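Annotators were shown the component list below and the corresponding predicted structure, then asked to write short factual statements about the assembly.
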Amino acid sequence: MPSEATYIGRFAPSPSGPLHFGSLVAALASFLDARAQGGRWLLRMEDLDPAREPPQAAASILRSLEAFGLHWDGEVLYQSTRLEAYRDALKQLRALGLIYTCDCSRQDVQAMGGVYDGRCRARTEAVVHGALRVKVADETITFNDLIQGPQAQQLLHECGDFVVLRKDGLFAYQLAVVVDDAFQGISHVVRGVDLLDSTARQIYLQRCLGETTPQYAHIPVAVNADGQKLSKQHFARAIDDADPVPQLLQSLQFLGQAPAPELREASTEELLHWAIGHWDIQAVPKLANIRHDCDPAITSG
Ligand code: GLU
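Structure shown to annotators:
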């Protein structure tokens, strides 16, 4: 079992709206995995896209985490304060000859079958208004996910060179997440399975930047009756800060844990204490998604 010094986990929400059931489950899973192993649990606000961030969303997420007893260690890290570090990482990648400018549109990439074919790699004329892409190697990245098992992705053929600085000048999630997981010394990343596909790109960037690779564990994501991921984009209902226990119980069931019915009468603290003591990552369903009907039963499928 890792000691406190070696386990550092995190929850890294994008403040595009209040916490909803899906993000509560991700927060809870990463919290329980860290606390069950005597680890630290850090909070990082991924606030790099102001146009998609309602002004009160970050504060509302912090209030909800407190209300649910999910107390983080240390100061919250805001990605909006980290632009210098992302610039330095870009510089490092550029020095390795891995960066080039590309003005292909989303439609262009779709026409390539969704995998960017690297056509701007060798362009000689200056591309002025473009995104920056990182060249990927013709190699297969493998890793062992603690929940989803062994994974492999051939980056060049399954993903292609990917964007690290967007056309609109914003740093891409893939770059920022790698720089900050390294900066915060994250040893374990527990997050939604919708990000499983990003992991090979992140491992590739870690290698290019000389950073270590954390242990990954991807939990199922909650979907609505139409099979859409519960998200702010799909107007998932915000969680209710006034009544944490039933929602924590639902989240634990969603994560395959088996809280006894009597825990309905427990306080938030007592319930979390039980959940830390009984956390079993092996019991988390190895499914891509689980349907979550907000009221009130949970059906797997
Ligand atoms: N900010 C991302 C999200 O809210 C999560 C990033 C991560 O956990 O790596 O979906």
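Statements collected:
1. The two ends are 33 Å apart (CA to CA).
2. Residues 81 and 294 are 35 Å apart (CA to CA).
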